[in-house]
Amino acid sequence: MKVGASYYPEVIAREEWAQDLATGREIGLSALRVGEFAWSALAPTPGAWEVGWARDFLAQAGAAGYDVIWCTPSATPPPYLLERWPELQAVNVNGDLMNVGGRRHACPTHPGYRDLCAETATKLARDLSGAPVVGWQVDNEIAGDGFTCWCPRCLTAFQTWLEARYGSLDVLNASWQTSLWANRYTAWTQIPMPFNFQNHTPAIKLDYRRFRSENWLGFYSTQADALRAAGAGLVTTNWYNLTWDIPFDQWAWRGQMDTIGCSHYLEEENGSRFQLDVLRGPVPGDKPLWVLEQKAGQQNAQNWYPEDLSRLARHLRICAEHGADYAIYWHLRQHAAGCEMEHGAVLRHDGKPTRLARAIQAAIRETAATPVRPADDALLVFSFPQQWAQELRPQPGTKWDYRVEVEESWYAGARAALGGVRIGPPSAMAGARLALAPFQQLEEPGTLEAIRACVAAGGTVVLTADLGRLDANNNVRRVPPLDALRVFGDIPELEVLHLHEQAEITGTLGDTSVRARLFWAVPEGASNGIGTISDGAYTGPAALVLPVGTGRVVVALTALDAQGVAALLRAVA
Length: 573
Description:
Number of strands: 20
CATH architecture of the largest domain: Alpha-Beta Barrel
Radius of gyration: 25 Å
Number of helices: 16
Shape: globular
């Protein structure tokens, strides 16, 4: 694994490049990420194209022994483009124009802007090809700050997307059940973007999330295709942390990426490993993994002291164990201006090494021989539409979060019981020996078929008792819980309960004490002999086991903490 840093030669004096590069090499850095905010340096005026400085920098970087990942600059269009296209200016959820001076202020749906971004990518690939450029990053943290444009153009694009998806308004109205509150649409132009997420129905909000993911994928692919057509090498982008925002269905995006790239600022070990296992995907090693940003020092003018700098080696080790080819710090030299001018970096504003530089140097040495952790045979399902569905449903009095439950309970429990686990979409269950699919409430194409294929091949599928509770449009299905599993045998009648905020129910799994957090699936009553809840405690089995041929379906009857998940998996693995 090569360790590097982001660098901004366009804002550093040319005569200082060589010293910065040499200092980085002394620390142990061997990779650079460059160019994501350099549009004004490449095209300072309309029609201009000044790439000589970039070529000169690449020549120095190559001579110093660096691999370079160059970025397209579409996250920061120059102000003059807003003069050319006033309608390019993005609109926020309140209807306010997103002013220049920051980033992500351009509408991603604007066809002229997409074409110009592709043209710029083509020029970059043509003029900067060859060593030391080893790959390309499209844009920077695409919509990772939750950005969405709410302009009339995006509204029209959403309506057009819906027409293509449903074909007719009759089908859409039936799917969304728009007779509620007399919301039946008679023209596509009547359909809004769901500004008010409290009052709009879960169905329109979920479809809007699907549209947003596909719309940004189109924005990315326009540039990625242009780079490849111009002879570029590996192309990727840098998704941001799962904990910040989950705007894209990353399983759908993987096919458009030559290598999987991310900004990875998570420091807590379980969360860090979870994100990297999501990025590795259901078949670890099928695509390279590039950690394109990680934290050198603290952010937002918080250059903390004292600070536990052992985190640097711990984080690098986790990246190496997950097979990352690159682990790149943000950033090499502190900015002297702008909103990020006090962010921590490897080098100070004057280019001198910081205390972080010494710690990073030690971390690189300490983790140099870290082996890649092999992929586990077990699969944990994580679904981006499931996350959206739960985020968008009215849940007053609860703070239940699908990602948190999967990460903190099921992933942590699987690591404790099994040593590791692969992560993939519901469809990946078909070939797994042991598949864990908690909280698969939303009907997704191929999920039931994958469950049946896994069981038919002698595998074990572990589910929770809320399987198939919601239809594909985030409405509650009018069937009993676990209705989809009745093909495997008799299923007791269950009731789905949401615990009041701060409430929990305790129980036992063998000799292990377990607790439920905010979500619980329980038998309807004691008469069926399955179990009961009384005085905040659960009495009864933790799981229902359904033998099916040589395979099994295991249904957890409670929402388990990590300890409970581990105990359950030790019992059934």
